[in-house]
Every structure is written in C-alpha cells, then in structure tokens.
Amino acid sequence: MKRYIALLFGALLIISCNNNPKPSEKEEIILKKPDSIIEFGYNLNDYKVIKDTIDKGESFGVILDRNHVEYPTINKIATDIKSIFDVRRLRAGKPYTILAKKDSTEQAQVFIYQHNKIEHTVIDFTDSIIAKKERKPVKLVEKTASGTITSSLSETLDSQGLSAVISNELSTIYAWTIDFFRLQKNDKFKIVYEERYIDDTIPAGINQIKAAYFEHGGKPFYAFKFIADSTKMIEDYYDENTNVLRRQFLKAPIKFNYRISSRYNLKRRIAYYGNRVRPHKGTDFASPIGTPIIATANGTVTESRRRGGNGKYVKIRHNGTYSTQYLHMSRQAVKKGDVVKQGDVIGYVGMTGNTGGPHVCYRFWKNGRQVDPLKQKLPAAKPMKEEIKPIYLNSIKEIKHKLDAVSFDEDISNIAHTF
C-alpha cells in the first residue's frame, strides 16, 4: 500500500512539473502605443506641449527665449515670416501653444498663436522656417429665437441664454428704424440667425442674422439680409417692400456700451468759465477708455493728428456735402489719406485734450458748417435697382415664411449645415 501511494505521489509531481513553462520560455509583453492626439496638424504625443496665454508686455522673443531658442534664431524667424505674421502684434490675453522637443533640451520647435477660436497662425522652425495662417473647420447651425420685451432687449436675450452680440446686431440693423433706448414693454422680436461651431460642439460665436422681425409700438418691421449690388458684394438689410433700412450715416460713432453725455448746444453755459456761453458744437458719446470708435459713413481720412483741446482726433470727408470729426481719442487707428468704410474702426475712446471723462466728441459738418447730426434728415443708402427687386422678393419668400412661423418665446430650433 505504501509503495502504491509513493508511486501515485510521484506521478502527480511529474504531471505538475510538466505544466510549468520551461525555463527557456519567456512571456511576450505587448506595450500599447498611446492613441494619437492630433491638433493644429501635429501629433501632440511627439512633443512636450506647453499651453499658455500672452501676458501684458510679453513679447515673442521673451516667450521663445524662455523655451530655449537663441536670440539670433528668434530674430531670423521674426524677419522671415514678417509678410505673413508680424510677431510685434501679439495681444495680451491671447492663447498660444508651444511644441517642444521631448529630450533634455526641451527646445521649442513650433509656436502656434490663436487669434480667436477659429483662426490661428502656425510658425514651424523645426528645420526650415515656415509660417501659415489656418482656420479650423466650422459648422454653421441655423437657429431661430424670439422674445417679448419686459425690461430691455439685452435682458430678454440673456434670460434665454442668447449672446449679447444678437442685441448689438439688432440695434445696428434697426438703427434708423427703431430707437432702442425707448423700447416699449411688450415689444416683440423674432430672428433667424447662424451660429458657428467647432468640432460640432464648441460654440464659436454668432455668424450673422439672416432675417429679423421687430414689433415696436404695435408696428411690424422686417429685415432681410441681401446683396443688391453684385459688383461690390456688399450685404445690406431691406424690408419686405425692398426699402433699405440703413441710412448713409450711422447714428453713433460707437456700436454699443455708450450714453450721450452732452448734446450739440450753441447756448451752453459752463460754470467753470463764469457761466458764460460756450457753444458745444459736438455730441459727446461717453464710453470706457479703449472702446472702438467707428466711421459713421464711407469716406477718406483728411486729418489724423493731435491738436490742443481736441486731443487726438480723426476727420473724414464723406463727399462734397458732409464731413465728420472724432475727438479725444486714446489713439488713432487710421492715417491721413486712408479710405474707410462705414463701420470701420478708426480709433479708440480716450481722454486726450480738454475732457473731464472718457468719451468721443462727434462733430458733423454739412456744407462746411457744423450742425447737430441727430437733427439732420440724412439720406438713405442707395435704393435697390428696379431690375433687382423681383429677384429679391423671390429670394426672401422661404425665409420670411420660416420667420413668420416662429412663435414668440418658443424654444430654439436648430438646422445644421457645414461651412
């Protein structure tokens, strides 16, 4: 019996040993390669990635020097790419990405400057120096929105989670039709607009308002975007009867975020000057320092300088009848001889010259005499040509039907298409 048990134990031991791997056999270890992370056309796994924002006073040279690029190379990069991108124009607060070597030097190879969510400039100096401006693919999503005014347009839009840009755009579209400082309770609006999206999900701002309806004081006001002059390709807004909504001049040299702090007044008396009459031949639009100032009409810059109590200013000749002037700028954005279009930024609000607070003094000349711009019956922009009217009326049928079908205070609907 003992001999049998011994034999059985030996057999089990042999079987057990045979199940173990041979000493010469090795287990195969498979390391999974990390998934590629592609951004700006580069696989980020191949680099040390540094993401940051431009600090105030920080320059292109300082950033690259901090990332182990020598100044002779920095100067060559700046010179070679100047026609594509001026590195002196980096703006504080803008994001940037650096792709650096994954070795002990950690030397920068690529600098990517993001102008906004859509546009960026890539500067690659890995071997040769290459710079290119690129745009991320954008999807345009058509949406509708509506609302009833209870206090202000901006508050109504904000309560629906809609962009303040819509409020600004509507006030521009209806600048000569509706006084947005005197909206009435229960005024209503409906719009068809486009919003931009990156990677299908990241909102990138409003693209355009395609059509609008505003009911003010019980009266309806339609607006449809249309290119009436195919030679100039300038879009404008027209009503349902082909009338252009825009006037030859904008009402204000600032788009939004302003108040009229002082009006044109030839009999104004100022206590500081012994209560004597000191005529004020301009209209003051108060706004924070740095607010963009825009040309109120097309024209040519005749002056861009600093002089006495006017401070830094720009003057524009629009035609043989009208000229405008914009005073007390912090800085000008145009020079003498520049041709500007209505809405172009020509400078920024400041306090230069004789001024008690940040504003732009807007002066208006008609036939060489300063007049009150808010009391002028200014001409409308060029009317639509007769031969274009049938084309326009046919083109707005579908979107007008869509606009009319929107109920007030409805949920936003989306119709997506790729751009």
What would you say this structure looks like, in words?
- Helices cover 16% and strands 37% of the residues.
- The protein has 419 residues and is an alpha+beta fold.
- A hairpin with a 3-residue loop joins strand 9 and strand 10.
CA-to-CA gap between the ends?
90 Å
Radius of gyration: 32 Å
Strand content: 35-45%
How many helix segments? Answer: 7
Mean pLDDT rating: 85
Reported for the largest beta sheet, the result is: 10 strands, antiparallel
Low-confidence stretches: 410-419
**Percent in helix:** 10-25%
Report the structural category: alpha+beta
How many E-type strands? Answer: 25
> What is the 3D shape?
globular
Break the fold down into its secondary structure elements and pairings.
Layout: H1 2-19, E1 38-39, E2 42-43, E3 48-53, H2 60-66, H3 71-80, E4 95-100, E5 108-114, E6 119-124, E7 130-135, E8 138-148, H4 153-159, H5 164-173, E9 188-198, E10 202-216, E11 219-229, E12 234-238, E13 259-262, E14 269-270, E15 276-277, E16 283-286, E17 292-294, E18 299-307, E19 311-317, E20 322-332, E21 339-340, E22 345-349, E23 359-366, E24 369-371, H6 389-395, H7 397-405, E25 414-418
Antiparallel strand pairs: 1-2, 3-4, 4-5, 5-6, 6-7, 8-9, 8-25, 9-10, 10-11, 11-12, 13-16, 14-15, 16-23, 17-22, 18-19, 18-21, 19-20, 20-22, 20-23, 23-24
